[in-house]
Design brief:
401 residues, mainly alpha, Glycosyltransferase, two-stranded parallel ribbon, globular
């Protein structure tokens, strides 16, 4: 900022602090967890003022949301091709993606692992796609309502959530006991919990539609009740305990879910405890002082997993802001989120070629989302160079699941 008279500088500081205080108050009451409500408010004002670029982007969003009006509903009880060993069609079931039939065995069992190579058999089961379709639809509809106030979007989203979380005939049982089972080895495992990270969009979608008459107090209460039950399962189940101990991105996204769902259901105490006692401890295991993520770099899709894990950390840091924990600037022996972003920047800017194994084409979508989330946190990193080359991601953009 240019040099000003002391009185003017003092006034600026007062105004900034007033904004910070307003933001602090807002984060307590708005219901937004992962979305930046201030940025959304600016975009909404630009859209309402007729800003051409923003209006064109919102039109594209609304076109997507209009498609969702005719889609669904979604449920784990629909298109069921394999019922869980429990015999309950409400139990979520999915098959481990990187496990294949052993050609040396008559029945192919037990399956063998091929890291990063998806077995097309997984697509014969539909619970995973139903879950992701639900979350994508509710997210798009939430944004569409936020920008337009058009009740049809919230009404559709409310119906989708009732089908998935509330209605007795179609609701999902709040567990992941049978996620990512491996034929011939197990009926489900903790690693499968990574698939429920898609649910983190639901609290923010509800916040965006909080003024709608379709988002009734009863609906919100029942959805929160489902999340509270699932949160209990995450903490107390065998699979949840396995995933909690995972050292790589699985542990990161386990924390994302526990913290997000705890905040959503009003358990700020649990969210703080997880962040302070478990998440911060993961820094030693996952990051180097140079900013590498060794557990992700050893994978066959090293770029994809490095960015996926860093996305999880950016989400955790955003959630931590809600409870006044600055994870963005938390470091242990020089290790932290900032170093990881600085380390990956030359590859994003194509100043260096990626030297690690990556068996599928490199995509930059997730990296750009990380930069967008981190931009206001690290003024010392020149993110302008990034957005001079790549389009700036919008909060309603594609999910990376």
């Amino acid at each position: 900022m240019p040099k000003k008279l002391f009185s003017v500088r003092y006034l600026v500081v007062v105004l900034i602090m007033a904004g910070v205080n307003a933001s602090a108050q807002n984060k307590k009451v708005s219901g937004f967890l992962l979305q930046n409500v201030q940025q959304l408010s600016v975009l909404k004002k630009q859209y309402q003022a007729g800003d051409t670029a923003i209006s064109n982007q919102i039109k594209s969003l609304l076109a997507d949301a209009d498609k969702e009006l005719a889609a669904g509903p979604y449920s784990v009880t629909f298109h069921k091709t394999r019922v869980a060993p429990s015999g309950n069609p409400h139990d979520y079931v999915s098959q481990a993606p990187y496990w294949w039939a052993d050609p040396s065995k008559p029945d192919g069992k037990p399956y063998i692992r091929k890291d990063g190579e998806r077995n097309p058999e997984i697509y014969l089961l539909h619970d995973d796609s139903q879950l992701n379709d639900l979350c994508r639809a509710v997210k798009k509809l939430g944004f569409a309502y936020y920008f337009t106030g058009d009740e049809q979007y919230a009404q559709k989203a409310a119906g989708l959530m009732r089908t998935w979380f509330i209605d007795t005939a179609t609701k999902m049982a709040p567990n992941f006991n049978y996620a990512q089972y491996i034929p011939g080895i197990n009926d489900g495992r903790g690693i499968g919990i990574i698939e429920s990270r898609a649910l983190a969009v639901i609290p923010d979608a509800l916040a965006m539609m909080q003024d709608s008459k379709s988002i009734t107090a009863d609906l919100k209460t029942n959805v929160k009740h489902w999340f509270a039950e699932y949160l209990t399962w995450l903490q107390k189940s065998k699979n949840g305990n396995e995933e909690r101990q995972a050292r790589n991105n699985h542990g990161t996204f386990y924390d994302v879910q526990v913290v997000d769902f705890a905040l959503f259901t009003g358990n700020d105490k649990l969210a703080k405890e997880v962040l302070q006692n478990r998440t911060i401890a993961r820094i030693d295991t996952q990051f180097t002082a140079e900013g590498r993520q060794p557990l992700e770099l050893e994978r066959t899709r090293s770029w994809s997993y490095s960015n996926m894990n860093l996305t999880g950390w950016s989400m955790l840091a955003t959630l931590a802001d809600r409870v006044d924990i600055d994870l963005w600037h938390t470091e242990k022996q020089g290790r932290g989120i900032k170093k990881c972003i600085e380390w990956i920047m030359p590859y994003l800017l194509k100043q260096k070629d990626w030297p690690y194994k990556q068996i599928e084409p490199i995509s930059y979508g997730e990296t750009l989302t990380i930069c967008s989330l981190a931009e206001e946190k690290y003024p010392g990193i020149d993110f302008n160079k990034v957005f001079a080359i790549y389009p700036r991601p919008r909060p309603w953009g594609d999910d990376h699941h």
